[in-house]
Each structure stands twice: as C-alpha cells, then as structure tokens.
Amino acid sequence: MIKVKLAYHDDALTYVKVSGHANSDEYGKDLVCAGVSTIIVGVYNTLEKLGMLDIGTFKVEEGLAEFIIHKITRESQLILETLVTTLETIEYSYGDFIQIKKMEE
C-alpha cells in the first residue's frame, strides 16, 4: 500500500511523504503506482522549472518521496495543493491501494 503523510502549519502544506508500493497489479502494469509516481515527479519538476526548489528539501527515490517545505509562498502552495488533490482523487478510486493521512503541526 502507498502511504501518504501530509502535515500543515497554519493552513500551509509543510510536509509531504509518500512511501510504499500499491501492488495493485504486476510490475509495469500498476496504474496506481504509475499515477502517484507521475504526480510526484511532475510537481517536483514544476517546482524545479520555476526555480522554486529553494523553498524546501526534496527527496525522490524508489518507493519514497519526501518534501519538507521551509519557505511558504502562494505559488508553491498552489502547486503542492494540486499534488494533494490528485492524490485524493486516486485514493477515492483506489482506496485499497493508497491511504492519505493529514495532520496539523
């Protein structure tokens, strides 16, 4: 199962951790893993393209993505909320394979 941990401080997303594997199908056919991986890498690439990687610390590797946001900007929050909305959409359709936990710091 893919586990997503989201932490907010004063309504701003400050931490994202996505770990695990969905195992919804065999390797190469797992649509849940493919969807989650696509949005994680897409958000990271968008932040990089816009020169916004200085807002935090980012780790993206096999089975783990972790974003720690140090500098809150309106633009970065919009991009990160796109990540959250997309992950919630995947969870709605494939809840047996992805679980999202939100917390306030």
UniProtKB/TrEMBL annotation:
GO BP terms: proteolysis; ribosome biogenesis
InterPro entries, per the entry: Peptidase_Prp, Peptidase_Prp_sf
Coiled coil stretches, renumbered: none
Molecular function terms, GO-annotated: cysteine-type peptidase activity
Gene3D superfamilies: Cysteine protease Prp (3.30.70.1490)
Pfam families, per the entry: Peptidase_Prp
Key words, A-Z: Hydrolase, Protease, Ribosome biogenesis, Thiol protease
Domain of life: Bacteria
Stated family: Belongs to the Prp family.
Entry protein name: Ribosomal processing cysteine protease Prp
Species for this entry: Sharpea azabuensis
Top-level taxonomy: Bacteria, Bacillati, Bacillota, Erysipelotrichia, Erysipelotrichales
